Amino acid sequence: MVHLVVEASKYLMILLFLIYTFECFHVFKYNGDVEEQRHIYRVQRGLLFSIHFDAFLVLYLTTYNVQIIGFYLMQLIVLLAIIVSYHLFYKHASELVLNNMCMLISIGFIILTRISFEQAFRQFIFVCAGFIISLLIPLVLQNMSLFRKLTWVYIVLGVGALAAVAVAGQTSYGAKLSLSIAGISIQPSEFVKILFVLYIASMLYRRQDFHQVLLTSICSALFVLILVASKDLGGALLYFFTYLVMIYVATRRFTYFGAGVLALTVAAVVGYRLFSHVQTRVLAWSDPLSVIDNAGYQICQSLFAIGTGGWFGLGLGQGMPQKIPVVTKDFVFAAISEELGGIFAICLIMVCVSCFFMIINVAMNLRDNFYRLTAVGLGTLYALQVFLTIGGVIKFIPSTGVTLPLVSYGGSSLLSTMIVFGIIQGLYIMQFDNRVQKKEQKLKGGKKGAKRKDTKE
Question: pTM score > 0.90 for this model?
Answer without folding.
Answer: yes
